[in-house]
From TrEMBL, chain A:
Taxonomic superkingdom: Bacteria
Database matches in Gene3D superfamilies: MetI-like
Membrane topology annotation: Multi-pass membrane protein
Keyword annotations: Membrane, Transmembrane, Transmembrane helix, Transport
Annotated family: Belongs to the binding-protein-dependent transport system permease family.
The protein, known as: ABC transporter
Record localization: Cell membrane
InterPro entries: ABC_transp_perm/SBD (IPR051204), MetI-like (IPR000515), MetI-like_sf (IPR035906)
Organism, scientific name: Nitratireductor aestuarii
One Pfam match: BPD_transp_1
TrEMBL record, chain B:
Membrane topology qualifier: Multi-pass membrane protein
Keywords per UniProt: Membrane, Transmembrane, Transmembrane helix, Transport
SUPFAM superfamilies on file: MetI-like
Gene Ontology CC terms, in alphabetical order: plasma membrane
PANTHER family, per database record: GLYCINE BETAINE UPTAKE SYSTEM PERMEASE PROTEIN YEHY, GLYCINE BETAINE/L-PROLINE TRANSPORT SYSTEM PERMEASE PROTEIN PROW
Protein known as: ABC transporter permease
Amino acid sequence: MRAAWLIRLCLWLLLCLFLAEPQLFADILRPLNRENAPTIYTQGVLWQLTLIHLTLTAVATLAASIVAITLAILVTRRSGRDFLPLSRSVANIGQTFPPVAVLALAVPVLGFGSAPTLVALFLYGLLPIFENTVTGLTTIPPSVSEAARGVGMTAAQRLFKVELPLAAPLILTGIRVSAVISLGTATIGSTVAARTLGEVIIAGLLTNNMAFIVQGAALVGVLAILIFDLLTVAERAFANRFGASATA
Amino acid sequence: MNSGATQTSEDLRDGGRALWYDKVGLLVAPIAVAAMFLPFMSFAANRIVEAESRSILASLPQTYAVMLLAALGVAALLLLVRTSTKLRAVSAGAAIALLLVAAGLAADHLSADANTYARVRPASGFWLLLFAFSLGLTDAITRLRLRPTTRIALATAALGALLLLVSSGLWSNISFLKEYENQAQLFWREARQHITLSVGSMLAACIVGIPLGITCQNQRGTRSAILNTLTFVQTVPSLALFGLLIAPLSWLASNVPVVSALGIRGIGTAPALVALFAYSLLPITGNTLAGLEGVSTSAREAARGMGMTRHQRLLRIELPLALPAILAGIRIVLVQNIGLTTIAALIGGGGFGVFVFQGLGQASIDLVLLGVIPTIILAFASAVLMDAFIDMSRKERREHR
């Protein structure tokens, strides 16, 4: 357990150091390149690109969470039941749409830049959260809902005090999956001129600059792993806290 | 007691109210009706000038246009009122077929007195109508709970009809079909490459992942190490993984003669296959493990009681019982890989992504659509097929018991 925390800390420190002083790493990356080719990406400031990348992901995931959870609540209510089979199928079919397709199709409507990327991240991020929320809300043991009804809770009380807390672990997992997918899709957003870390990889691919590819890819990869890890830890902390209060 | 009573009375009220409309129809029908008044086709005299939009009435000969509007109106009405689910499915399906044919006719009509540079493509109204009736069709089909074989037959028929439509030349005046005709050879080459990459990496992942799942079950010590490593790999964004593989593979290609003799290069098919393979391992290994874990102790003990060896138990009892879960893993991988293969085009791996990124580079929607539409159809078709297989294997499993 302690080793895990040590690795975590080292990776975060390494990430920050690389973003703050990328030139320190130039010597490590130099052997990858032909002579005289630039080693560190300078057409954009790396920490700024990282910040934009993270902002895009965070905004899209937040918006997707709000919309997906609201929709999932609506289709699991009595009056929305008719939409449940359809919405499940749509979520299922939606997941067969490749992220690149969503991104490419958003461009004719919204033009190039961050806007189509944000829309694609949002649309694609909806599905895992929606699916997990629906699963969480529909798999609550009947005895629990009966008990909640039995103690005279209103529909709103049942939703907020019983159903949502019970579904919370699954919802959080959905949000984590969605965030990690968004982080990866944002990288591809650079093919439609969104300023993200994907820009570094694509610049490397276009100019055959291996150092660019490796630093961009490593940066995105480490970021994705750290965020995945951070959200997993947060989930566990939430579960522990909730579990403790439930037994108290 | 009290709460139970209120619930039943609520149920009765809801059922007894006998709504005349369908709630999903109430959402879908207005979208369809509104879409009938939106631009149906967009028309540009050549690639450079701005496109003008044409409504249904302006893009078809008048009699056809009126007939189309009437038919779509009836189909929308059938979705709105409560009728038999089968009728809803048929009318929504017919509306979609009609739309596809009408788009071809409209393109012919609009380019009749224009030169060969004219570009006609479906506009917002067409896409919205297609979306609305697809929603209606999806809803009806989901509620029909068709048998797996029926679903496969329907999907095959739909694909066949689509291919027929393309080869009949009815769509030859629609801009992205023009693009297709310009580079038909390249299109089918990239199609083969796309399928090779996505299916090939899936097969390789099965060969490695299923035994890995079995190992995970037998040796609990290695389980978390294997699963954690695979989760770790899946977390790395695709473009990053494709990129990171270029370096070691090109090093191998330039330093190990055998590798380069095999045709392996730093960019192209090799890194694409390796990356897709790496992404595929977690769903297959994880699902194999979950399937094996789900085998009931009574089944295991019965097999042991019959004097089966460990090997026999695995092959004859445990793996067949775990089959639905393994197939579910393969479904995830297949759909995921078909989507991810599009990105392989960025590292020279080919596939439909070539058209997508070329189109994005040249700001040509037609090229983008030429890449995106077949990718979606391929992913969707394999999802339908695999879902049917999963249902069949589940049914078989039940009969075995």
